[in-house]
């Protein structure tokens, strides 16, 4: 795309929500992002599914042979929600951050800033596409897990709700990272150094009730614990924290991300020179 100059009313100077919703514009960006995923199907879908299957084989085989059950659930089935959440968080952040970073990198961001779209419409398109891809990958991984163990879903509606809410929350987070990043190194900095360690330490492969009292209390400051616990509860009715705490944290995280995005579009932070 060519570098188009900004108009007199760039997106960062427009109201967060205009009176007329630009449906065609939102759909065009959303469709383009979905098509980009289909063009890179092996990297976008096949790779995370294979990686998760390998996690399942290694952890389920090596540790499952030593731990028969956790909370009344076989270890192989117990780690399924954690594996889905691990992939969900990673893919949501990656999809959304790359989607907004590349227009900045190529200069095509000026076309977006000049387009007749509000900030809400732009975020809705990019975050909606990223969340859709993440939910799809999560469901594929769930179907793959059924090949290894029998997975029970006691609360399917809540399972879908947590799947969607988590995807949206971390797609918003990834969108913020994509705007903040000035280089590919910065783009991968937060996922590699912060998100992945928090996910592994967030009870994806174990229950924090298995930890000594001090480390269990320490783990409660890890936000991923609340996401994994709520998602696991939707499967087996057991979790490390209450379902209310999981929902409250998810809602709080979404609210914080939205507040940051409001500030970004009002100030033009790293969106315009």
What does this entry look like structurally?
A two-stranded antiparallel ribbon has the order 1-2. The chain has one domain (23-267). The chain contains ten helices and two strands, in the order ααββαααααααα. Helices cover 70% and strands 1% of the residues. It has 273 residues and is mainly α. Mean pLDDT is 85; it is low at 1-9. It has helices at 23-39, 41-62, 75-106, 109-114, 119-145, 156-180, 184-200, 213-219, 223-236, 243-267; strands at 69-70, 73-74.
Structural key phrases:
2 strands; 10 helices; 273 residues; mainly alpha; disordered N terminus
Please summarize what this structure is:
This protein is mainly alpha-helical.
Low-confidence stretches: 1-9
Largest sheet: 2 strands, antiparallel
Number of helices: 10
Number of strands: 2
Strand content: under 5%
- The helix/strand series, from N terminus to C terminus, equals HHEEHHHHHHHH
- In total, the number of domains comes to 1
Widest sheet, order of strands: 1-2
Structural class: mainly alpha
Helix/strand layout:
Layout: H1 23-39, H2 41-62, E1 69-70, E2 73-74, H3 75-106, H4 109-114, H5 119-145, H6 156-180, H7 184-200, H8 213-219, H9 223-236, H10 243-267
Antiparallel strand pairs: 1-2
